[in-house]
Amino acid sequence: MAETTTQLTGAGIGQGVALGRVLRMSDPLPEPAETPSTRTPDEEKARVAEAVAAVADDLRSRAAKVTGVAADVLEAQSMMAEDSTLADDVATRIDGGTTAERAVFEGFAVFRDMLIDLGGYMGERATDLDDVAQRVIAALAGRPAPGVPESDEPYVLVAHDLAPADTALLDLTKVLGLVTREGGPTSHTAILAREKAIVAIVGVAGADSLADGTEVIVDAASGTVTVAPADDQRADAQHRIEERAAALAGGLEPGALADGTPIPLLANLGSADGTQKALDAGAEGVGLFRTEFLFLDQRMAPTVEQQREHYIALLSAFPGKKVVVRVLDAGADKPLAFLNDAHEDNPALGLRGLRALRANEDLLREQLTALAEADAATEADLWVMAPMVSTVEETRYFVELATGYGLKTVGVMVEVPSAALLADRVLQTAAFASIGTNDLTQYTLAADRLLGSVAGFQDPWHPAVLRLIGEVGAAGAAHGKPVGICGEAAADPLLAVVLVGLGATTLSMSPAALADVRLSLTRYTLDQARALAEVALAADGAAEARDAVRAAATPPPQ
Ligand code: PEP
Ligand code: MG
């Protein structure tokens, strides 16, 4: 009998499509029994010490084989394994007569629950700790660590959740896609899938019911897993896989819409070290250079010379190309004691961004000096902007100050609703606007971007956010001034089209997102982008806007 097609949904990571047969991760180990130990406490403690050392060694050697986030996560896990507070907790349980296996199980569970209670980013780390516990228990039992199955054929990996240790070493020539029951958009599985460009959907409620050998289509863009697809669905998936592969392979064309309208695609960078990655991904320049890393974790501001050298390193990588540098954005999620050590109950509404710089004008002047000197020494087209500008007066202040240092193109970030609402006046003075959708969403929806409990509000698809972006786009068009987007929203390929429809003239994102956004833009004309923007603006909420635009955009025009 033919299987019936069903669809499961979850949070898609990226835009890819995968088609293949399911192979499941091996199931977690059974819970260790509560029976009292027949060994002495010292014997049990010695077993734990040996198992922990073996697991930590294994994690460290895995870390040494990879780079980037994967290496950091594995290192962090090896440290979790050897954490002394955890070891004390386990030892106390063993002293009470518990077996090593049970003591590790219970001890790690207590810490895991504490992480979950903390929520947000810390809560997402609970999976990492669970994985370490499973590894230690497996080592105690003399069993192999639970992990990724072996296969000669490519497959779609289905797991309850994927431990970083497994994700880091996935054989990407075999794993077509990844589906997990647990995990959210900020879980390590999601972060690593994004970094490795694995087609993934996390948080899929029915994932545990997927059996080995079942054929599935994993469509990250729509967040759907189609189980036992029909022939036409299979053919459509195949077509999209080939189209995307061709676009990604060829893909260093400048960003443009289907009608040829250029939409330069730029990179967000956090230090000059990332320039090569950006160039390799076809970035046409830099749309947001965050200068914070030069200052954060320091006891004093870097000198003009130190800053100048770093800016020269950045600008030299982009001769003749646009590089937008943001002056220091400290405060709130990026605290900096030497700038502002006053206690603030609501730091996101406090002395941050340009406000903090203005209160420490010497520091701002030094940064502008270093930027002007680097500009004079290099061939890039340097643009400079201020973060967290909320008034026309602040715009005038910054533009006058920066142009006084000989900087030619001086603009502001629009991250606060007041600046978006008065964009027509802001852009009378500023040479350009760059919309920071992360903060603009936080301030429009009044939801702290760091707070897990209100994470649902942090969605730039919200029509209120889009309406504000439309205000800035219209003001840019009226004044003939560029309007860029440099928040995470620009990295969402479909939302990127909507943003262009609202008047964005450039899009800036982490280099890994450039290829999918480039492909998405080629599917729509400017008129179609504007029509999709209208569809989004007419919705009542973020989810409705996203769904309505998806429906209106499918099938994409050929
Ligand atoms: C933003 O707020 O969207 C932005 C780009 O700035 P950051 O994320 O650094 O605050
Ligand atoms: Mg911001």
UniProtKB/TrEMBL annotation:
<dbReference type="GO" id="GO:0016301">
    <property type="term" value="F:kinase activity"/>
</dbReference>
<dbReference type="InterPro" id="IPR006318">
    <property type="entry name" value="PTS_EI-like"/>
</dbReference>
<dbReference type="InterPro" id="IPR008731">
    <property type="entry name" value="PTS_EIN"/>
</dbReference>
<keyword id="KW-0460">Magnesium</keyword>
<feature type="domain" description="Phosphotransferase system enzyme I N-terminal">
    <location>
        <begin position="9"/>
        <end position="125"/>
    </location>
</feature>
<feature type="binding site">
    <location>
        <begin position="438"/>
        <end position="439"/>
    </location>
    <ligand>
        <name>phosphoenolpyruvate</name>
    </ligand>
</feature>
<feature type="binding site">
    <location>
        <position position="449"/>
    </location>
    <ligand>
        <name>phosphoenolpyruvate</name>
    </ligand>
</feature>
<feature type="domain" description="PEP-utilising enzyme C-terminal">
    <location>
        <begin position="256"/>
        <end position="523"/>
    </location>
</feature>
<keyword id="KW-0479">Metal-binding</keyword>
<comment type="function">
    <text>General (non sugar-specific) component of the phosphoenolpyruvate-dependent sugar phosphotransferase system (sugar PTS). This major carbohydrate active-transport system catalyzes the phosphorylation of incoming sugar substrates concomitantly with their translocation across the cell membrane. Enzyme I transfers the phosphoryl group from phosphoenolpyruvate (PEP) to the phosphoryl carrier protein (HPr).</text>
</comment>
<feature type="binding site">
    <location>
        <position position="415"/>
    </location>
    <ligand>
        <name>Mg(2+)</name>
    </ligand>
</feature>
<protein>
    <recommendedName>
        <fullName>Phosphoenolpyruvate-protein phosphotransferase</fullName>
        <ecNumber>2.7.3.9</ecNumber>
    </recommendedName>
</protein>
<dbReference type="InterPro" id="IPR000121">
    <property type="entry name" value="PEP_util_C"/>
</dbReference>
<feature type="active site" description="Proton donor">
    <location>
        <position position="486"/>
    </location>
</feature>
<dbReference type="GO" id="GO:0046872">
    <property type="term" value="F:metal ion binding"/>
</dbReference>
<dbReference type="Pfam" id="PF02896">
    <property type="entry name" value="PEP-utilizers_C"/>
</dbReference>
<keyword id="KW-0418">Kinase</keyword>
<dbReference type="InterPro" id="IPR018274">
    <property type="entry name" value="PEP_util_AS"/>
</dbReference>
<feature type="binding site">
    <location>
        <position position="439"/>
    </location>
    <ligand>
        <name>Mg(2+)</name>
    </ligand>
</feature>
<keyword id="KW-0762">Sugar transport</keyword>
<dbReference type="GO" id="GO:0008965">
    <property type="term" value="F:phosphoenolpyruvate-protein phosphotransferase activity"/>
</dbReference>
<keyword id="KW-0598">Phosphotransferase system</keyword>
<feature type="binding site">
    <location>
        <position position="326"/>
    </location>
    <ligand>
        <name>phosphoenolpyruvate</name>
    </ligand>
</feature>
<dbReference type="Pfam" id="PF05524">
    <property type="entry name" value="PEP-utilisers_N"/>
</dbReference>
<comment type="similarity">
    <text>Belongs to the PEP-utilizing enzyme family.</text>
</comment>
<feature type="binding site">
    <location>
        <position position="290"/>
    </location>
    <ligand>
        <name>phosphoenolpyruvate</name>
    </ligand>
</feature>
<dbReference type="InterPro" id="IPR036618">
    <property type="entry name" value="PtsI_HPr-bd_sf"/>
</dbReference>
<feature type="active site" description="Tele-phosphohistidine intermediate">
    <location>
        <position position="188"/>
    </location>
</feature>
<keyword id="KW-0963">Cytoplasm</keyword>
<dbReference type="InterPro" id="IPR040442">
    <property type="entry name" value="Pyrv_kinase-like_dom_sf"/>
</dbReference>
<dbReference type="InterPro" id="IPR015813">
    <property type="entry name" value="Pyrv/PenolPyrv_kinase-like_dom"/>
</dbReference>
<keyword id="KW-0808">Transferase</keyword>
<dbReference type="InterPro" id="IPR050499">
    <property type="entry name" value="PEP-utilizing_PTS_enzyme"/>
</dbReference>
<feature type="domain" description="PEP-utilising enzyme mobile">
    <location>
        <begin position="153"/>
        <end position="223"/>
    </location>
</feature>
<dbReference type="GO" id="GO:0009401">
    <property type="term" value="P:phosphoenolpyruvate-dependent sugar phosphotransferase system"/>
</dbReference>
<dbReference type="InterPro" id="IPR008279">
    <property type="entry name" value="PEP-util_enz_mobile_dom"/>
</dbReference>
<dbReference type="Pfam" id="PF00391">
    <property type="entry name" value="PEP-utilizers"/>
</dbReference>
<dbReference type="InterPro" id="IPR024692">
    <property type="entry name" value="PTS_EI"/>
</dbReference>
<dbReference type="InterPro" id="IPR036637">
    <property type="entry name" value="Phosphohistidine_dom_sf"/>
</dbReference>
<dbReference type="GO" id="GO:0005737">
    <property type="term" value="C:cytoplasm"/>
</dbReference>
<keyword id="KW-0813">Transport</keyword>
